[in-house]
């Protein structure tokens, strides 16, 4: 069964297409990555899934049913813009949000207590939200997203602003959800997170789908024409070598895309003696490189800043 | 519906718990009570003392009559004013200085200087440290006036009692005719209309801005999208408006209970101090006016509440909201400015038309109901127009709210808002 089926949805704001003719399917029990540069239409897509914005065209089916208000109780949604009523107490706000998800009060109370304990927040239950640190509030937001044990969890930029410890905590829980058979969709621009967690991805650019499918298959399709070079020394000469298609230089580390039909060993020989090579690995391209290629060079700067 | 209830409950509890609500709810009646109680307390304190008043009578013919006339009694039956005559032995100016000293030393509370030509248009003087006790001044002035007039009449050989009968003032009672019959009105209608309209005006303003502030808070705290993952924007808006309405009713109920008991208590309080004032009528609100008041409060609340909610959704801060509120404020202020006009000519076609305009109707139709009984077709018509306008506004503001609540950054232009309304 599919957790989400999106069929040819479009949304226009005035003359501007936020999402255009987008389709993808997500299998139940998988982790799905929705990626794309800023303003590509990720958040609009998610809002349409959540029935917060109504698509102009197309169909959305969630858990094999037409999306409607009732289905919201089976979905947990962590929006990109998130916060709480600052004057409410931690326990109260979680109870309020759980009630909105249709939970019984006593069940909700029990589950709130166990989640707060798990996140080390049980002592803060009676404190006002505004007294909590940013990190604590982020944990609370996550609790609010999963408190009603949703079948589908949608996380819009879940890692934004999280420290490494909370990032790990969140990642662990995402995988735990997957093992329990729930489906997780998350959007981000951080490619290494997608590479580590996702089974399938959809890349959106300028309102349209550019790439979709199983992550390892996508990479395989690109073939082993990428060299990861860990080096020291002067590398300017490399750019003019005939084997090179594209270079992404990070200063100590370089991702090189070879021209089709080129032997990677030939390149290696040309490098030996001119620079110190710490590592020379031939592999599939990184998602980062694929992203840059698909989205285009003019978005490159934007991407590196993330 | 269950979700709307959760929102209503949250709004209600969160607001009722705030210091602002508690202080406002207590302060309201305290202010009301102080209007009733303080004047009584003040008058009790000042009335409770006997006052020694010196009299310098240069005309030599006023004192005895004045002493007789100024026979106001205190509660215990003793005289309020104890007049003491001071004979002029030397220069009157020397005596005046002496008495002034006595007033300063509080041996006298005041003295009255009566010039020689008092019967020929001379002006008497009242000298005291406090010359602002109008009640006392009125007593003395009236007594002096009637004594001097009697003297003048006698001099001309006329009978003061007969003259008094001849020039007795003609009274003009105001009687309000309603369907139930005729009823004497002692100015209460004016007072009640004024009070009810003012309460309506202030609470519409007050609760409207609470709604707006709530919406802005949801936006700035970024909680709104989390809530929208469980319910529709429309449900959130309706829940908020209803929850704050419940707060308003709570506050009204507390005030009403307080007001009724206070007016009852104050009446027995007044008559215990002034047995003569037991006939004093505290103006009461006719039940049908009260019902219309509640009806127009509810209708006005929803009309303005939805607009305030929409404005809150369009802006990012209260400061930004100020410019957008201005036209709404005008809608509320205009009827207040027109109040006097409508009261004077409640049945003129201008008044009728004004009271049918939905944005003015809550205040002006209520006002017309207070001062006369407008034809039912007009009252029913204005309620119908209001209800239809409210339904339209809920539809319209719901569309604006739905988009606005998720928009951050620049305040939208008018054209953009029109676009929002057109979104599917």
Can you describe this structure in just a few lines?
Chain A has 306 residues and is of the alpha/beta class. Chain A has helices at 42-49, 90-100, 105-118, 134-146, 164-179, 191-197, 215-222, 264-271, 287-295, 300-304; strands at residues 2-13, 16-27, 31-35, 57-62, 65-66, 75-78, 152-156, 183-188, 200-205, 208-214, 226-232, 244-249, 253-258, 276-283. In chain A, α2 (90-100) crosses α3.
Structure report:
The complex is a heterodimer of chains A (306) and B (424). Chain A has two domains: 2-215, Rossmann fold (3-Layer(aba) Sandwich); 224-283. Mean pLDDT of chain A is 87; it is low at 299-306. Chain A has helices spanning 42-49, 90-100, 105-118, 134-146, 164-179, 191-197, 215-222, 264-271, 287-295, 300-304, and strands at residues 2-13, 16-27, 31-35, 57-62, 65-66, 75-78, 152-156, 183-188, 200-205, 208-214, 226-232, 244-249, 253-258, 276-283. In chain A, the strands form three sheets. In chain A, strands 6-7-8-3-9-10 form a six-stranded mixed sheet, with helices on both faces. Chain A has a four-stranded antiparallel sheet with strand order 2-1-4-5, covered by helices on one side. Chain A has a four-stranded antiparallel sheet with strand order 12-13-11-14, covered by helices on one side. Chain A starts with a strand and ends with a helix. Chain A is built from ten helices and 14 strands. By secondary structure, chain B is α/β, with parallel strands linked by helices. Chain B folds into two domains: 2-37 and 188-422, no CATH class; 50-166, D-Maltodextrin-Binding Protein, domain 2 (3-Layer(aba) Sandwich), CATH 3.40.190. The interface between A and B is medium-sized, with 33 and 25 residues.
**Overall mean confidence score, pLDDT of chain B:** 84
**Tally of alpha and pi helices of chain A:** 10
Low-confidence stretches of chain B: 276-280
User: What is the H/E string of chain B?
Assistant: HHEHEHEEHHEEHHHHHHHHH
Say which CATH homologous superfamily of the largest domain in chain A is assigned.
P-loop containing nucleotide triphosphate hydrolases
Largest sheet of chain B: 4 strands, mixed
Distance between the termini of chain A: 35 Å
Shape assignment of chain A: globular
